[in-house]
Every structure is written in structure tokens, then in C-alpha cells.
Amino acid sequence: GTANIGVVGLAVMGSNLARNLASREGNTVAVLNRSRSKTDELVAAHPEAGFVPAFSYEEFAGSLQRPRTAVIMVKAGGATDAVIEELVRVFEPGDIIVDGGNALFTDTIRREKAVRETGINFVGMGVSGGEEGALNGPSLMPGGSDESWATLGPILRSIAAVADGEPCVTHVGHDGAGHFVKMVHNGIEYADMQLIAEAYDLIRRGTGKSPAEIADVFAEWNRGELESYLIEITAEVLRQVDAGTGRPLVDLIVDQAGAKGTGAWTVQTALSLGVPVSGIAEATFARSLSSHPEQREVSRELPGPAEDSRDALRVDDVDAFIEKIRLALYASKIVAYSQGFDEIRAGAAEYGWNIDLGRIAAIWRGGCIIRAQFLNRITEAYAATPELPVLLTAPYFVDALTRAQSAWRDVVATSARAGIPAPAFSSSLAYYDGLRAERLPAALIQGQRDFFGAHTYKRIDKPGTFHTLWSGDRTEIEAEDTH
Ligand code: NBP
């Protein structure tokens, strides 16, 4: 074999990743695709890459040096299983199969276990940054064994995005850890996008500014603590004018948000782990709500706030109003990231992964959609307190939330009075107040559960587990602990 790495699956992601690999000193890249045409096109379009094309799995295995290393970039699901089966057939113990697709982490855990039986290494790797990232430098989140990382590490470091001089890749943890972290990354991305959309909506309806004027607001925000790729592209999208009509493009785009399912996975997983990622959940549900035109159609005549309530949004001091929204956005963003890291912490505990949370924030600084300077603050917070139970309680974030909180409350109250939906702003604030509360009404819920289901409760004033004989004489008895 002459190639030191191979790529299977040459659609947009795979061919860009193959070109990225080929552009690095010392790499020779073997390429294989199910249908021959994509391979032929890639090799013809990029003679400079020196690709070694293969047209069968046998030929592909033969063209690779040992230990053979192949990255799979096919449609996640059955296609991944089909390719793994073929590679396992032609590879040998010690070889490495990397799945760079958007696999569900539980599939990766299953595949890793099955492939390991053959003596071949299997690495599930999250790849972030879309086509652009794959070509010029993605953020890479590999899982898998330490043995695979020893071989893969140098190659992955050479193709990853670079942030502050550091490659955006780390060995996240064993088996499905990489795909788990990539999943939560996408969930946080949903929340970040929804928060930005709510800020835009409030500014637009509150001040009557045009999309182009609001683009200037976002461009200005991008010079401060909100600096991020998503804020930057928001300004670009808002500034775009439709060539045909001369109207702002954003006013011509159908207002139904699509989703490929990774936000839903993040929320489903959080539900089973018992982690309250309410900001991510609201963002995911907001996309669902937008995508039901039939329900929105029949709901259009539902009553909104009375005239005087709509005055809630009559803004006198435009600059002050915009600054409040900026602060509400920043505070809600801190909540969303704190919740996402909470999910990673809980996932690591559940699945036995040793994940360095500060490193995760660091490898998201380049290549990926949520890249931002803000992530440095998260790395610093975990460096200072590695076992931090709630990210937003780190001193830097407490300061930021203290600065933001009165504006945040104003914005949530204003949106409620004016009848403008701000689900992510308001649920983030509710989460914050829930964490802060000295007593929660969960005590009443425990009482209700005990009433209808004898689920028992604990008391604040003495140890033990108790049940009240609700349908009897209502005396309290000590009970077995049934949780
Ligand atoms: P697609 O997700 O559109 O998949 C197309 C590729 O899968 C083609 O190479 C196709 O081969 C191959 N394939 C299929 Br479909 N069924 C197959 C089978 N049974 N056996 C072998 N190959 C099969 O490609 P993509 O958009 O480049 O994405 C690749 C992966 O990267 C996905 O898992 C995606 O979720 C992930 N990802 C995408 C992005 C992004 O921004 N697009 C970002 C990060 C990760 P063919 O040519 O013969 O049909």
C-alpha cells in the first residue's frame, strides 16, 4: 500500500475532507465511493491532490499502509453499517476505522463494541464545520481507544481548524464520547440560533428598524462579548437584499425552520439523563412550532394582548432597548451553554467517559458553527474548578449575569406583555431562577405523588422516608424508600 489514510464516501463532506488530508505534507489519500462516478470526478478535478482511487473494498485495503486507517463519510445510519461490514471484511486486527458521519452516539457505542471483537479499532468522530470546515479545517471530536488516538492524533491535528495556535481536536473519550459531544454541540447551536432570532424579532417589532439597520446592530455586537460566527453571519443574512424584488431576503424566506434531528437527539438524551436543557429544548420546539403552517393558520385569530399592553413595546429610547436585548441575549446564552455542558458532564458520568470539559470548549473555538471567543471563558472556568457542578456559577459568568439580570427580566416581561414569543429567553430566565430558589414547589409535587401513588417523601427535619395515609386517618407512617 502507498496511502497512509483513506476516505470512504465522496459526497461533499468526504471529498472535502479527502482534499484537506491530501493537502497536508506527507499524506497520500486513498478514496472509495459506492458509485464510481463520484470517485472519477474527484480524482479528475483535483490532480494536485495525488489521490489513490479504489473501486472495490479489496483494492482500497490493498492501497493502504498498515495499520490501515480509513475515515467513513457516508449518510448516517444503515449506510454506515454497510460500509463498516465491508471494511471489517477486508481489514486486519490493528487497523482503524473512523466514522466521521453524524452518528447517534448509542449507535457508535454498539458499533465500537462489535468491531472491537474483530481486533480492528473503531473510532466514532464528530466533525463540525460543514463543507467549509471539512475542506479548510473542521473541529474534530474523536472517541475510541487510546491505541487508535496514538495513530490518529497527529493526522487529525494536521487537518483540524486552528484557534489561538492550537488545533481544534482532542481525544474526547472512549467509544461514543466523540459523537455524544458533537450531538450536544449541535443542541447548543440550536439554542444559540433561536436566541439570536428572538433578539432580532424583538428589535424589529420594538423599534421598526429595517433588517439592514438590524444587521448593523449585530455587526456592532460582534465587536463585543457576543463576538461569534453566528452573530457575524446573522448580520450578513439580514443585510442580504433579494435581487428580483429589492426587498430584504429575510422577508421573503418561508418562516418554517428545518432540522436534521441532532437537536432532538440532544433533548431526548437529556430527558433520559434527567438533565434540564430547557434552552435547547425550547429552541428545538420553536422550530417544530414554526413548521406547522396548518396549526398556525387556524390560530391566527387567537386573541393577543389588549391595545394598552401592546404599548409595552412602544420604545422611546431605542439604544437603551437594544442594549437590554443584548444583555438578555448574553445571559440566556450563558444558560444555554451551561445546560449543554451539564449534559456532557451527566453523559460522561453515565457512560464512564473521562471528558475534560474545558478542552471541549477549547476545540469548539475554531472550525465549528458555535465558534466564539466566549468559549475561552468556559475553558478558564473549568481550569479554575474542574469539578464545577454548574458552569454558570463560575465567577466570570456570575458577574455577567449580575450585570445582565435586570435587563433580562425587563426583556422577558416586555415580550410577554407585548405578545411576542421569546421562548428561549424566558425559559432560560426561569431556569436561572429555578436554580437560585431556596425552596421549590417540588415539595408540593412530592405531596401530590404521595397522595395518588403512595410514592413517599422525605422531610427536611428528620431522616427517613414517609407516607401519609391520605385515604385513611391521614397520619404519617415511616415507609420503605421507593424513590
Ligand atoms: P450524504 O449524507 O449525502 O451521504 C452521501 C454519501 O453516502 C455518498 O457517498 C453515498 O454514496 C454514500 N452512501 C449512501 Br447514501 N448509502 C450508502 C451505502 N449503502 N453504502 C455505501 N455508501 C453509501 O453526504 P454528506 O452530506 O457529505 O455527509 C456525510 C456525512 O457527514 C453524514 O453522516 C453527515 O451527517 C455528516 N456531516 C455532514 C455535515 C454537513 O454540513 N453536511 C457536517 C458534519 C457531518 P453514493 O455516491 O454511491 O450514493
Automatic annotation (TrEMBL):
Alphabetical UniProt keywords: Gluconate utilization, NADP, Oxidoreductase, Pentose shunt
UniProt cross-references to NCBIfam families, sorted A to Z: gnd (TIGR00873), PRK09287.1 (NF006765)
InterPro entries, sorted: 6-PGluconate_DH-like_C_sf (IPR008927), 6PGD_dom2 (IPR013328), 6PGDH_C (IPR006114), 6PGDH_Gnd/GntZ (IPR006113), 6PGDH_NADP-bd (IPR006115), NAD(P)-bd_dom_sf (IPR036291), Pgluconate_DH (IPR006183)
One Pfam family in the UniProt entry: 6PGD
Protein name, UniProt field: 6-phosphogluconate dehydrogenase, decarboxylating
Species annotation: Microbacterium wangchenii
GO-annotated molecular function: phosphogluconate dehydrogenase (decarboxylating) activity
Superkingdom, taxonomy of origin: Bacteria
Record has tRNA-binding as a keyword: no
Domain 6-phosphogluconate dehydrogenase C-terminal: 178-471
Record-annotated membrane-spanning stretches: none
EC annotation from Swiss-Prot or TrEMBL: 1.1.1.44
Family per similarity comment: Belongs to the 6-phosphogluconate dehydrogenase family.
The protein's annotated pathway: Carbohydrate degradation; pentose phosphate pathway; D-ribulose 5-phosphate from D-glucose 6-phosphate (oxidative stage): step 3/3
Reaction(s) catalysed by this chain's protein: 6-phospho-D-gluconate + NADP(+) = D-ribulose 5-phosphate + CO2 + NADPH
Transmembrane among keywords: no
